[in-house]
Amino acid sequence: MNCAEFQRVLPETIEGGGNAEHQAHLNSCPECSGLVSDLNAISQTARLLRASEEPSPRVWNSIETSLKREGLIRQPLRDRSVTGRSSWRLSPAWLVPVAAALLIVFGVIIYQRGPAQPSQVAEQRAPAVSTQTINLQTAVNRANDDQQVLDAVGFKSPAMRADYAANLQNVNDYIRDAEESAQADPNDEEAQQSLMDAYDQRAMVYDMALDRSMP
Amino acid sequence: MTDARKLQGDRLSEAEAIERAKQGDAEAFETLYNLHKRRVYSLCLRMTANTAEAEDLTQEAFLQLFRKLGTFRGESAFSTWLHRMAVNVVLMRLRKKGLAVVPLEETIETEEESPKKEPGAPDAMLAGSVDRLQLQRAIENLPPGYRTIFVLHDVEGYEHNEIAGLVGCSIGNSKSQLHKARMKLRELLKTSRAEKAIKP
Questions:
Q1: Least CB-CB distance to A62: which of B34, B59, B185?
Q2: What is the CA radius of gyration of chain B?
């Protein structure tokens, strides 16, 4: 069997393993064995792409809006009687819009500052320790905000807390990646845009949490 | 789900969420969405290579599912039902756009599809390793017909007989187009690797 004959039957044999003749050719031909090895590597790596992407929070927002409009989501009456006006005052739900507003303001400030000028870059490079301190403080503030949001969601709907925690984790990972890219190259407009998108997504998760935590 | 379990913050199981969603429970709908959103969205994104369109199709697939939830009797796995629905939603969209969903039985290979190698020239190989991000980009550059078969088989794990039923082609055609898609991807990956090596 030569290479042309082997490659002609390859679509049929690659999944089934082929017969002894095919195997003999593979053992003696580095080109065909390299080809089969590449095709198998492509196929195996492809499996890693399954469920690898996270949709934006706005997808669920749109679905929920449609479900409500079509009457498929019905609000249970008991929820309204249990969580009355007094429990709303006692609940930490009011913290959610405050945190969302602070987040948006923070994002806008970062965006308006835009790419750093050379002199600013020089100034920013000198106090490296204080920049790290600011980053640490930002991370701590972010974690506190998240905790308040999750507490608010958990107060009204304990079962959804884990889902919101996972969503916030994904969004925070996205923000961290975008921040790293933007810091690596402050003039990279794409990185700045990714950062703004990341903050938008976070604000959207907060908005959804606000809806969820309302009585 | 009992109140005690709810207080402990347990997540709804899929079966509980399905039953509660049938009663119109908002939380149950969201639970079902969260359980399956990544798989459905990834499928839509791979098949369309377009973020906005993938989000739109994800929304459409879940809405169709939720509208038909009352008819779900549990004879098949819920995830199988949902993914089949998502595939159909995507295929319908591709057909509406006039894109080739069903690959041709007899594909006339163009020069671009079947790059010819100079006799005796060494064939560059991927050495059995493929970068996930590079593969992702290469899939985006596949012709839609090849992409559909490749995503359904190699990414989503459908068998050739299932693909034949879904896209309306023969099993042999599905096998043959899958092979051509993999060969095309190999070429795209080799080109991408060569370009990367040239860049400083």
A1: B59
A2: 21
Domain end among B96, B123, B141: B96
Q: What is the pLDDT along chain A (215 residues), one digit of tens a residue?
A: 888 988 888 887 787 777 888 888 988 999 999 999 999 999 999 999 998 899 999 999 999 999 999 999 986 544 433 333 334 444 455 555 666 666 666 666 666 665 555 445 444 544 444 556 666 777 777 788 888 888 887 877 777 777 788 888 877 877 887 787 777 777 777 777 778 877 877 887 787 777 766 65
pTM value is 0.64
In a domain, B113, yes or no: no
Q: State the amino acid at position B146 in one-letter form.
A: Y
Residue B187's identity, in one-letter code, is: E
Give domain status of residue B107, yes or no: no
Interface of B with A in 143-162 (CB under 8 A): 150, 154-157
Task: Supply the DSSP symbol for A51.
Answer: T
Alpha helices in B23-75 (DSSP H): 26-48, 51-67
- In this prediction, the answer to ipTM > 0.85 reads no
Instruction: Give the torsion sign (CA, A57, A61, A66, A68).
Output: positive
- For residue B149, the enclosing domain spans 132-198
Residues of B in contact with A48 (CB under 8 A): 132
Residues A113 and A193 in one domain: yes
Phi and psi at residue B49, to the nearest 5°: 55, 35
Give the torsion through C-alpha atoms of A97, A202, A156, B38, to 10 deg: 160
